[in-house]
Amino acid sequence: MQSTMPKMLREVAKQHPDVSAQYFKDGTGRFQSVSYSDLYETILNVASGLLHLGVKRGNHVGIISDDRKEWQEASMAIMGLGAADVPRGCDATNADLSHILSFAECEFCFVENQAQVEKCISIREAIPNVKTLIVFDLVEKTALEAAKKAGFSLIQYSDVIENGTKERKKNPGFVEKEIDKGNEEDIACIIFTSGTTGEPKGVMLCHRNFLTQLDELPELITLSPGDKALCVLPVWHSFQRLCE
Q1: How far, in Å, CA of 192 to CA of 96, rounded?
Q2: Domain of 209?
Q3: Residue 194: what pLDDT?
Q4: What is the mean predicted confidence (pLDDT) over 45-70?
Q5: What is the model's pLDDT at position 238?
Q6: How confident is the model at residue 1 (pLDDT cuts 50, 70, 90)?
Q7: Residue 88 and residue 200: Cα distance in Å, rounded?
Q8: Cβ–Cβ contacts within 10 Å for residue 84, how many?
Q9: 124 CA to centre of own chain
């Protein structure tokens, strides 16, 4: 068993490069697959792009998004750099986001779409620590201008990948070295509770928390390379992340 989740994914990509790791719907509504080797390559490019932006080991990076393939790419890239992701879904209230992003001291935050960009703009005074928003979907020019006016640096996810790809050509193997530095006690993510009885509480989970469970999972569920699984839980729930 590898000591971190990105190391584990790297090993799987080596052993089963052509096996499908993800299925997603394209613009026509048809399912497309992504192999483990392609997924890992994208993660390396995202991680490289984040390094270029200034993400460092020990940072906390927000992800405000619902289930989508880019979520897993971003999460693994963040963890690969020794940082921790701080996830929440698009249904998070302004009050919850204000508390979560400020309490976790996130300087960088992935957001799903323009609606989440606008939400962050509306709570700008409550999250002064957030400097950069990385948006998965394309946004209108007005959103870019509004974000800039609010003091955010707004970057498209596709640009992060493009910049990261260029940086990897300049410095081959640099991201892999960052992944190699990871250990099982590194914080992988900070998952906040629902906050039904008060403010959401941040639960810090290290790589060992997830990998220990993964080590036991084969005794309960028989899985083989190529098997497909449908998960309907929000991707930021701890059990959903374990399944992924």
Answers
A1: 9
A2: 5-243
A3: 74
A4: 97
A5: 77
A6: low
A7: 11
A8: 24
A9: 22
| Count of domains observed in the chain | 1
Determine whether 197 is exposed, middle or buried from the number of CB atoms within 10 Å of its CB (0-12, 13-18, 19+).
exposed
> How many alpha carbons lie under 13 Å from residue 140 in its C-beta half-sphere?
7
User: Which ranges constitute the DSSP H helices of the chain?
Assistant: 5-15, 36-53, 69-80, 94-103, 114-122, 141-149, 157-170, 174-180, 207-216, 238-243
Distance from the first to the final alpha carbon of the chain: 16
Q: Please, which pLDDT band fits residue 84 given cuts at 50, 70 and 90?
A: very high
Q: Tokens representing 151? A: 């003091």
Looking at the DSSP bridge assignments, the partners of residue 155 are 134
pTM of the model: 0.93
Q: What stretch of H or E contains 24?
A: strand 20-25
Give the angle subtended at the CA of 172 by the CAs of 14 and 189, to the nearest 5°: 65
Structure tokens at 136: 């998965």
Which residues does 74 contact at the CB level (< 8 Å), separation at least 6?
46, 63, 85, 110, 134, 157
- 92: Cβ contacts below 8 Å, ≥ 6 apart: 64, 100
Residue 233 scores a pLDDT above 90 = no
CB 29 within 8 A of CB 44: no
CATH number of the domain to which 64 belongs: 3.40.50.12780
